[in-house]
């Protein structure tokens, strides 16, 4: 996840620095590595729970964390082909916009559902802090990607008009206090400790063990 954010940052700043150029091209190899938007299937499942003021046992919270993280990973991967098009300064067609909107909507719902679940219920003592860390990390990660997309749109628009783009990354830098390698390491150590198998953080191979 950290690597993807770094690459996104890099793309934004490269495009900003090169905004006076007429064209920016990526290599054919890079394009071949990206799944076509037509082949992207919008994930059908996200984390949901209608529980309120309930006592959650360990088995349930472990499954809830796994479901939340797996759903996030599937949605995150599904969004990559669309974000690559945006990063290239190209426009999405109608079908692509509709598909990306669905992915974004599900991502927001996944984050909100899990956040409400851990706030409005009583979790086992040794899960409360780390569940909040996971929720804060993933939500901030998604927010950063949304903001980077907005910045990139502004950069592209400014370049088209021949203007110098204005970039304000203050909000993003604040969120990076939550989304960083140190926090991710704490989360992964917790997942290992509680034997929670998930696709997130590139741990899909561990999930199969």
Describe, in plain words, how this protein is organized in 3D.
- The chain is mainly α and 209 residues long.
- The chain has one domain.
- Helix content is 66%, strand content 0%.
- It contains eight helices and no strands.
- Helix 1 (2-17) runs parallel beside helix 5 (125-160), helix 3 packs parallel to helix 5 and helix 4 (94-119) runs antiparallel to helix 5.
- The longest helix has 36 residues, at 125-160.
- The two termini are 22 Å apart.
- The relative contact order is 0.15.
Relative helix content: 55-70%
Report the C-alpha radius of gyration, rounded. 19 Å
Tally of helical runs = 8
- What structural category characterises the helix and strand content? mainly alpha
End-to-end distance, in Å?
22 Å
**Average pLDDT score:** 81
Concise account of the structure shown:
This protein is an all-alpha fold and 209 residues long. It contains eight helices and no strands.
What is the topological layout?
Elements: H1 2-17, H2 28-32, H3 58-87, H4 94-119, H5 125-160, H6 170-175, H7 181-193, H8 204-208
Helix pairs in contact: 1-5, 3-4, 3-5, 4-5, 5-7
Structure characteristics:
209 residues; 0% strand; 66% helix; single chain; mainly alpha
């Amino acid at each position: 996840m950290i690597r993807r954010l770094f690459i996104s940052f890099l793309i934004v700043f490269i495009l900003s620095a090169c905004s006076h150029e007429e064209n920016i091209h990526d290599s054919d190899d890079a394009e071949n590595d990206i799944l076509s938007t037509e082949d992207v299937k919008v994930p059908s499942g996200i984390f949901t729970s209608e529980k309120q003021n309930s006592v959650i046992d360990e088995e349930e919270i472990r499954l809830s964390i796994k479901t939340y993280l797996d759903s996030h990973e599937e949605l995150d991967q599904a969004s990559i082909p669309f974000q690559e098009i945006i990063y290239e300064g190209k426009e999405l067609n109608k079908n692509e916009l509709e598909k990306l909107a669905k992915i974004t909507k599900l991502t927001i719902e996944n984050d909100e559902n899990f956040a409400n679940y851990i706030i409005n219920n009583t979790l086992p003592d040794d899960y409360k802090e780390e569940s909040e860390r996971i929720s804060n990390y993933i939500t901030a990660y998604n927010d950063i990607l949304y903001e980077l997309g907005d910045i990139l749109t502004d950069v592209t628009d400014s370049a088209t008009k021949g203007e110098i783009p204005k970039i304000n990354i203050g909000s993003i830098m604040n969120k990076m206090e939550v989304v960083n390698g140190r926090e991710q390491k704490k989360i992964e150590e917790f997942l290992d400790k509680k034997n929670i198998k998930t696709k997130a953080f590139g741990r899909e191979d561990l999930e199969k063990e």
